[in-house]
Predict the structure.
Amino acid sequence: MCVVCGCADSGEATTKTHEHAHGHAHDHGHVHVDPTHGDLHFGAGAARVSVPGMSQARTVKLEADILGENRRIARQNRHHFEAHGVTALNLLSSPGSGKTTLLCATIEALKARAPGVDVAVIEGDQQTSFDADRIRATGAPAIQVNTGKGCHLDAPMVAEAFGQLHSHDHHHHHDERASLLFIENVGNLVCPALWDLGEAAKVVVLSVTEGEDKPLKYPDMFAAAELMVLNKVDLLPHLRFDVQRCIEMARRVNPTLQVLQLSATTGEGMDAWLDWLLEWTAPEDDSQAALRARVAALEAELAQARAALER
């Protein structure tokens, strides 16, 4: 996992070494070998990940330290968003699923459907400002966050980006108007699942061009999400994609997962998507807002606890 990749300099390795028929040894750490086919599962140890040169115990400790600090800043983000009347949604997917196209279509649709709702976007990519430029072309404010070699956004990055939105005097009316903040994460179905950014909910976007087996191949992502958006449904006549099988697989991982089917290109299903978004911006009294924020925080902590138990 990206929490520990590249940090294998502790010298605390507890890997196992054995000889192969080709005459030299390899360190394999905690790996399960399927007796039938010889398939290798490197997530069988306590850390659920194999890092060369690092013990499972050290990996678990390092991950706990890093994610713990991230959660602390995520809580600050959550309070900051709440204080400004902002509902933050974390959009996750593999590259090419259509997140940016969906956001551009959403911004334009909200102008007509809910002109009183302010929208801003934090864009995450390793390099370039292509996606932020596309968002800014719609008239919505956007801040690009380039992560370099990083494969996900984290809470400190989001905190700094949100501060940049403020410094550029974009729409911040506190409680006068409803505000949506879309955080488009780096395209990756693995690492971003574990990182709380302070969002109200995670939304995973799955394109029908990717295959219906993705929820079982990348279960952490779908387990962490509140909503799965099946995008590009206009292409279904040209694909062998079983929608119901995909939904069944996703709900095997997350029984309470909500599902919407839409096409950001044709507009099919967009009304249901807007309905879902606007539910988050509906007026509520202080006790409801506090409860929602507390539930979001508890859900983030529960996801971390579940991941720890699965180790």
Observations:
- The first helix runs from residue 56 to 83.
- DSSP finds nine helices and eleven strands in the chain.
- Confidence is low (pLDDT under 50) at residues 6-28, 170-174.
- The two ends are 13 Å apart (CA to CA).
